[in-house]
Automatic annotation (TrEMBL):
Residues 263-456 form the COBRA C-terminal domain. GO terms for cellular component: plasma membrane. This is COBRA-like protein. Belongs to the COBRA family. Keywords: Glycoprotein, Signal. It comes from the Eukaryota. It holds the Pfam family COBRA. The lineage of its organism: Eukaryota, Viridiplantae, Streptophyta, Embryophyta, Tracheophyta. One of its GO terms (biological process) is plant-type cell wall cellulose biosynthetic process.
Length: 471
């Protein structure tokens, strides 16, 4: 699968930090069938729910937030809490989580949202999600609340949930895509009826101590801030209603909080050299002397290890390797033509517990301004340093071919894609490791690159130019 670009793609302004009208007009240049053309400036229009959700994401994007990553300075998860109706002892609210991160999504087994009530509130009922624990509801004799926990934790429902328990934008098993890859699924909503909470905007107290787990750590949430009440339009757009009260919480991500060790590594290969620069030993940790922190493929204990305690917490169960990483990315400089050069990217999964659905890869390389053709990959340029610098690209798989990276042990435990890049006579060189990436991210986490001194010497391996090919 591939698409051609008649010239380098337009530098697209995406997500927060730009005017909504400008963002709404931006098109998407994504892959199609073999040889499909994607002219510069082509716009793809999404219909129905995708349009409404995309508009909501753009119009409600925060102006400025804390950032942990220079490649995505405005990236965050924003939680919006809208009080929609008053009840005899509280209110009904719709809570929506918007993913404003360009290349970090929430994958399986999904999000877990928690908070602490300011008073003695209880959750009478929920739709689109559920509290993980009911807590002590012994003080209630008749109608028993859904949860009496002072600090409830809420999880999404599964896609096959009965319709009478669903609301719009719910029930995705906790998976939230990035706006770049799938804007129609870049948010998640649920509804809850709160009791013992006050029945006016003056009586309601905001929850505090918000936490977001996915399901492991990594996100830090700020305090709830009351803002302008949200406005909602009927499907025909002829009537507008608004929430009685709205507050927002912003959660930002840190890879250092998410895990103590990296989660991916990079190996490098050259078409004219048999030597492969492997992932560095212990890139993501080292094997225990007794081998208890990894499992060999084909081990008789593999099944019981997969179903062990870490299954429900998202803890990786990795194959025993020298690098001990759940994921390895190989960057192969595959061919060298007169005016172009070709790169093959292979992603291999060594995690026995995880299928990486809707995976994505972010790579930094100075030649990305000259991407000409892609095979088996979707592509979007990222410009965190301004439109004049186009050296950062986001790649992801083409549905339904290679958009899922199957778990270790599967025949489909790796995916591939290729790039054809035009040579810039003023910058292109095989010297000083120029053809290798500067940084690589997998699903938003920074991967470990080999040590520069381990790279093969280009000077000693002069590469002949192969016959010009159409690619």
């Amino acid at each position: 699968m591939c698409y051609k670009l008649s010239r380098p793609p337009a530098l697209l302004h995406i997500l927060a930090g730009y005017p909504a009208a400008e963002l709404a007009a931006v098109g998407s240049e994504t892959g199609g069938g073999e040889g499909r053309m994607a002219p510069r400036g082509r716009q793809v229009t999404c219909y129905g729910a995708a349009v409404l959700l995309a508009a909501a994401l753009l119009l409600s994007a925060p102006d400025a937030t804390e950032a942990y990553d220079s490649l995505d300075p405005n990236g965050n998860i924003t939680i919006k809490w809208d009080v929609m109706h008053w009840t005899p002892d509280g209110y009904v609210a719709v809570v929506t989580m918007y993913n404003y991160q360009q290349f970090r999504h929430i994958g399986a087994p999904g999000w877990q949202l928690g908070w602490t009530w300011a008073k003695q509130e209880v959750i009478w009922s929920m739709a689109g999600a559920q509290a993980t624990k009911q807590g002590d509801c012994s003080r209630f004799k008749g109608n028993i609340p859904h949860s009496c926990k002072k600090d409830p934790v809420v999880v999404d429902l599964l896609p096959d949930t009965p319709y009478n328990m669903q609301i719009a934008n719910c029930c995705k098993a906790g998976v939230i895509s990035t706006f770049t890859q799938d804007p129609a699924n870049a948010a998640s909503s649920f509804q809850l009826s709160i009791g013992l909470a006050g029945t006016t905007t003056k009586d309601v107290k905001l929850p505090k101590n918000f936490t977001l787990r996915t399901p492991g750590p990594g996100y830090t949430c700020g305090r709830a801030i009351v803002g302008k009440p949200s406005v909602f339009f009927t499907p025909d757009g002829r009537r507008a209603t608004r929430a009685f009260m709205t507050w927002k919480v912003t959660c930002t991500y840190s890879q250092f909080l998410a895990q103590k060790t990296p989660s991916c590594c990079v190996s490098l290969s050259l078409f004219y050299n048999d030597t492969t620069v492997s992932c560095a030993t212990c890139s993501c940790g080292c094997r225990n002397p007794n081998g208890t922190n990894c499992v060999n493929k084909g081990s008789p204990h593999l099944g019981s290890a997969i179903d062990g305690p870490g299954k429900w917490t998202g803890q990786p169960l990795v194959e025993c390797t020298s690098h001990m990483c759940p994921v390895r990315i190989n960057w192969l400089v595959k061919q060298n033509y007169k005016d172009y050069w070709r790169v093959q990217i292979t992603i291999t999964n060594f995690n026995f517990r995880m299928n990486y659905t809707e995976w994505n890869l972010v790579v930094l390389h100075p030649n990305f301004d000259n991407i000409t053709q892609l095979f088996g990959l979707n592509y979007k340029p990222l410009t965190p340093y301004g439109p004049s610098i186009n050296d950062t690209a986001m790649f992801w798989g083409v549905k339904p071919g290679n958009d899922v990276l199957m778990q270790a042990g599967s025949k489909l435990g790796s995916v591939q894609g290729e790039l054809l890049l035009r040579k810039d006579s003023q910058t292109f060189t095989f010297e000083k490791e120029w053809v290798f990436p500067r940084r690589v991210y997998f699903n938003g986490d920074n991967c470990v690159l080999p040590s520069p001194e381990s790279y093969p010497s280009f000077a000693e391996n002069a590469s002949p130019v192969t016959k010009e090919s159409s690619g």
